[in-house]
C-alpha cells in the first residue's frame, strides 16, 4: 500500500489520510533520537496492512534523518520483530524479541 505520509512536527506525529480517515504514529524527537510512542489506525481500517505501511514509511524517514530509534509502541516493536532488517535503527541495548 502506498501511503502519503507527512511529518507533522506541531502535533509530534507522522500522519496519512486513508479513506477519509487519519492514521498516525506519535513520536518524541530529540536531536539524535526518535521515540515512536503510539500508532493509531481506525478500527474500520484494521487488518489491511495500513499500520505496517505507515511504520515502513516512518522507518525510512528515521533512516534518512540518521536518527536512533526507540520503539515504545508495541505495534512498531512487533513490526521490527517481523522485519529484522530495520533493527539497525534501534538504539543499542534495546532487545526486540
From TrEMBL:
It comes from the Bacteria. It is an enzyme of class 2 (transferase). One of its GO terms (molecular function) is acyltransferase activity. Pfam families: Acetyltransf_CG (PF14542). Keywords: Acyltransferase, Transferase. The keyword Transferase applies. The keyword Acyltransferase applies. Its EC number is 2.3.1.-. Residues 6-91 form the N-acetyltransferase domain. This is GNAT family N-acetyltransferase. It comes from Maribacter cobaltidurans.
Amino acid at each position: 500500500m502506498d501511503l502519503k505520509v507527512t511529518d507533522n512536527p506541531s502535533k509530534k506525529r507522522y500522519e496519512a489520510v486513508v479513506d477519509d480517515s487519519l492514521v498516525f504514529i506519535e513520536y518524541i524527537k530529540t536531536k539524535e533520537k526518535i521515540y515512536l510512542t503510539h500508532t493509531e489506525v481506525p478500527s474500520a481500517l484494521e487488518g489491511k496492512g495500513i499500520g505496517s505501511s505507515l511504520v515502513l514509511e516512518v522507518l525510512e524517514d528515521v533512516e534518512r534523518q540518521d536518527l536512533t530509534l526507540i520503539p515504545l509502541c508495541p505495534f512498531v516493536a512487533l513490526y521490527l520483530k517481523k522485519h529484522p532488517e530495520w533493527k539497525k535503527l534501534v538504539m543499542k541495548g534495546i532487545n526486540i524479541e
